[in-house]
Amino acid sequence: MPEEWTVSAITRATLPVLLGLTAVEIGSGLVLGTFEATLYRYPSLLVLVPVTIGTAGNLGSILASRLSTAMHLGTLSFAPTDDDLAGNALATVTLALTLFPVVGAGAWAATGLTGTHPDLPVWTVVAVSFASGAALALLAVGVTITATYAAYRLRLDPDDVVIPVVTNVCDVLGVVVLFAVVQVLV
Amino acid sequence: MSIRDVAADAYREAVPALVASTLGGLFAGVVLGGMRAELRLVPGLLVCVPALLATRGNVYGSLGARLATGLHQGLIEAEFEADDRLVAAGAAAMANGLVASAFAAALAFCVLLALGRTVAGLGTLVAVALVAGLLSGIVLTGAVVAVVFVGFRRGYNPDALVGPLVTTIGDVFGLAFLVVGVEVVLGVA
Q1: Of A11, B114, B133, B178, which shows the fewest CB atoms inside 10 Å?
Q2: Which domains are seen in chain B, by residue range?
Q3: Chain A touched by B113 (CB under 8 Å)
Q4: Domain of A103: which CATH number?
Q5: Alpha-carbon gap, residue A166 to A168, rounded angstroms
Q6: pLDDT at residue A2 above 60?
Q7: What is this structure's pTM?
Q8: ipTM confidence score
């Protein structure tokens, strides 16, 4: 595991992954560009985009960060019965189930505050947010544990690799999941 | 600790930062809605937005996680001094952030050109990304070091603070500085 704190060592460990993830995010941007018209039609969904994607990425990065530290401290084992693993995964899902309804209501209210006439009923926005959040939390847990395990097997520092991978995958999944849910509920 | 204890502990630690980041995310949404004029002035910028925002989160989230781990392991101290390791970590973050920003703009330009979509000049896109990347890099480096160190000193686990706060600050400042970048670059050109 790289422990050397120099510009070149950190860059060697970080930059290749960073550029790969940037390319993935451009894909996410292209998806977003495709749905531009829908977003402009329903401004509360547009306001929902950064907060949904961001919160999903945050849930993943908190989990990744805690697993990474547990791994550095040597207290983590990759078994479903591991307390650190299962407890943190449970907390991630619970956080999503309690936060995302509030996120939806907040996005609806923020749209109203910007002077735009609310384009959708508040319950629709809350339902979209809750359904997206629940799906994203499960995906985030799966992606995080997989990425942490991969870093562990490949002897990479999870601080350099896992958090970026998880956040970016959650970003892309966030765009895709949000629009899948919108297709069903709106 | 049992699974329930770990979960309750993780939940309690995460809530304040997540609530703050949710408010920040909503604010970022409002900023995004308000910058449609700038997005239209520089076609292709919208396609770059997720990549540029993610770069902030990636680079400075990684910096925060590195500092948190460094504090846990005793490699660095939570002191605001020009420590070699601290300076190297900060400088590497800034450099990587700028390289990734320019790369995102160039890649978006190439892909949009290949798809035959309307896109601004390569120089314009890259310049906007670099100006925004530099300004948000300065703010984020300071914010990450401050949040991790102050959090650590007050007895919070810096791990629970880093991700959400970096993403939040990154999104809000990232979008605001993109607006600045568009104005600076189009003003100079």
Answers
A1: B114
A2: 3-188 (1.10.357.20)
A3: no
A4: 1.10.357.20
A5: 6
A6: no
A7: 0.77
A8: 0.83
